[in-house]
Amino acid sequence: MTPICTGSAIKADQSSIESYEAKLVADRNSIETAKTSLAATLAKNRQSVQSAQQGLAAFVSTRGNPYGHVILRGGARGPNYDKASVRGALDALRDAGLPERLIVDASHGNSERDHLRQPIVASEIAAQIAAGERGIAGVMIESFLVAGRQELTDPARLVYGQSITDACIGWDETVTVLEGLASAARERRSRSEGQRPRVASTKR
Q: What is each CA distance from 44 to 23, 47, 60, 93, in whole angstroms?
């Protein structure tokens, strides 16, 4: 997953669950909060009172989102894309009876706000995937056509395809990162297929 860099990073804290996609952000301090939020996201027939578009109070019942997941994006204590952090988050989800499914952010806290570090982070994530880690379901990358960022001052002087919010990696770097992740996914798939028991043929 390589979203166009718009600066609309997904965030969650103790009092918020993102509507619709229910993507949750966690760092080493907030995994407990993320677990609670994920459980609420997955729950069927969850009911709450909300404000409708017309400004009126509305009683809302949801059917739950089976695709809810936790996003590791780093935090105040530093990055959390490393193998130990990923495994710790997955173990916490398993112990809570929740799906062992993570999205790992290659930007924000995990890149220490340096877009040039995103390929390094992605390479480490790819290594975990290639080694067989199945809990990593996806990767977030801040990517655009032109690397870096620019200030929104004179619209006539803007560089086409360059971010005006968070700094992004450029298209060439994005291709390299995606090729590395795709190769890792193929390696993980081949490992999984190699572990499947062979069924003896009954044909004669």
A: 17, 9, 12, 18
Residue bearing the bigger pLDDT, 100 or 34: 100
SS (H, E, C) 81-149: CCHHHHHHHHHHHHHCCCCCCEEEECCHHHHCCCHHHHHHHHHHHHHHHHCCCCCEEEEECCECCEEEE
- Are the C-beta atoms of 168 and 143 separated by less than 8 Å? yes
* Distance (Å, whole) CA 139 – CA 186: 15
pLDDT for 54 equals 85
Phi, psi of 102, deg, nearest 5: -130, 150
Average of pLDDT values for 39-51?
79
Question: For the stretch 93-128, what's the b/e string if a residue is b when 16 or more beta carbons lie within 10 angstroms of its beta carbon?
Answer: beeeebbbbbbbbbbbbbbeeebebbbebbebbbeb
Q: Which domains does the chain have, with CATH numbers?
A: 23-195 (3.20.20.70)
Which sign, positive or negative, has the C-alpha torsion 50, 53, 58, 59? Answer: negative
DSSP three-state, residue 74: coil
Rounded average pLDDT over 12-38: 53
